[in-house]
Amino acid sequence: MQEQLLVNPAGITEEKFTTNKNIIGALVSEPEAIHAGTILFVPGWSGSREDFVAVMPILSSLGWHCVSIDQLGQPSSYGPSNEDAFSLEIFAQDLIDVAKNFPEPVHVIGHSFGGTVAQSAVAMNPEVFASLILMCSGPGPLPKEKWGGLPALVQAVEKGRSLRFIWFVKSLTLTILRLQKFSRPVRKWRKQRWLSTNPQSLKVMSQLLMSVENVTNKLKITLQRHKIPVLVLRGENDDAWPKDQQLAMAQELGCAFIEIIGAAHSPARELPDKTAIEIDTFLKTI
């Protein structure tokens, strides 16, 4: 997260969408001239709608109406306190319901776990989507060696540990291992976002990242009946799903595969200019 993302850029406004079950918060940027279409961004685990504020104004300058949501449980879509209110099907249905607010099919971009949700949503209701971009995402669960602190987080939430305590342990570990890579202002912002997230949502998302079924298989079946353009997009140094899995996912879906050189797991905030160009180029050539 860069310092420029600590305050939303000019031209970005807040909006609320009411789905069948929930209230979903979003950030919106409008096109400056010709309307090229609507892009709907879906953040990943422990993320939020702010993850795309660097790329949204660039895309809007190119004609795109951009909407970035908080998934259920993320700060502006906090939701209920019971675990049963969260599941992959509920996350996906919320995305479908938000997409139905627009007069045309939307282009959905799912980042990391948001890509899992986006694949599920397109498989469930392809008619409301014009295309799908999977950004630093994968076909199913993360490989076990990539789980990191996910099992410990699930256990901590089950034991009633607060997110404040979990953040303290997480931050201390990163400091000891010298893996802390964010400046003090950004760490403060990230901490506040973490504390404003619903712990039950974090728990369910963590469980899904370790055990979700292969959503690409379901998506492939849907795409045989509904021809929706797909792009697999990753940062060159993405450290979540391995590159070979992402390549295989692109081959399975019969779609293009693009790497953003110099980016890691979050191209939209690390290299927003390059990311916006790749997104705009793909969407305007389909």
Q: Mind explaining what this structure looks like?
A:
The chain has helices at 56-61, 88-99, 113-124, 150-158, 163-176, 184-195, 199-211, 215-225, 243-253, 267-270, 272-283, and strands at 12-18, 23-29, 37-42, 64-69, 106-111, 129-135, 230-235, 256-260. It has 286 residues and is of the alpha/beta class. The protein has one domain: Rossmann fold (3-Layer(aba) Sandwich), CATH 3.40.50.1820. The protein has an eight-stranded mixed β-sheet, with helices on both faces. Strand 3, helix 1 and strand 4 form a beta-alpha-beta unit. The two termini are 31 Å apart. The relative contact order is 0.16.
Total number of helices: 11
Structural class: alpha/beta
Read across the widest sheet, the strand sequence of neighbours is 1-2-4-3-5-6-7-8
CATH fold descriptor: Rossmann fold
Order of helices and strands: EEEHEHEHEHHHHHEHEHH
Please describe the biggest sheet, giving its number of strands, its sense, and whether it closes into a barrel: 8 strands, mixed
CATH C-level category: Alpha Beta
Taking all residues together, what is the mean pLDDT?
94
End-to-end separation in angstroms reads 31 Å
CATH architecture identity: 3-Layer(aba) Sandwich
